[in-house]
Amino acid sequence: MTPQATVEAFIAHWNACDIDAMLALCADDIVYHNIPMEPVNGTAQMRAMVEGFLGAVERCDWQTHAIAANGNTVLTERTDIFHFKDGRRAAIRVMGTFDIGADGRIKGWRDYFDSQEFQREFAGA
Q1: Are strands 89-100 and 73-84 parallel, antiparallel or unpaired?
Q2: How far is 74 from 100, CA to CA, in rounded Å?
Q3: Whole-model pTM?
């Protein structure tokens, strides 16, 4: 699988809320950094974070507006939409950077977003 195809599959697994499939595409020592929050290190911490978040979510609809790959680095411009179990919805614009390791799994993932937009969207969600 190409680095871009790996990221596209990862996003599809988010949209399906399939944590196991999502984490299968990640290196055991992945560093996930939702900037400006603290980074998450390793798949165990990432699983705990994702399970906690998806516990309130009915479905995800991450829409990729642009994607570009340069070697093992993939950039995404997205709108991440979350539909909550109680009927509320939140959407945030995100620029993501994924680093793919030699084994084809995601070893680094950084998402950049406007923290004020995040607070506005998720305060109501």
Answers
A1: antiparallel
A2: 8
A3: 0.92
Question: Are 71 and 3 a contacting pair, CB within 8 Å?
Answer: yes
| Backbone phi, psi, residue 110, to 5° | -125, 125
From the number of C-beta atoms within 10 Å of its C-beta (0-12, 13-18, 19+), residue 75 rates as middle
Whether pLDDT at 125 is above 70: no
CA-based torsion, 96, 61, 25, 45: positive or negative? positive
Contacts of 109 (CB under 8 A, 6+ apart): 26, 30, 31, 32, 33, 96, 97, 98, 99
Tell me the per-residue pLDDT of 11-38, one tens digit each, with 9 for 90 and over: 999 999 999 999 999 999 999 999 888 9
- β-strands 73-84, 57-70 pairing: antiparallel
Instruction: Give residues with Cβ within 8 angstroms of 36, minimum separation 6.
Output: 115
N-terminal to C-terminal alpha carbon distance within the chain: 36
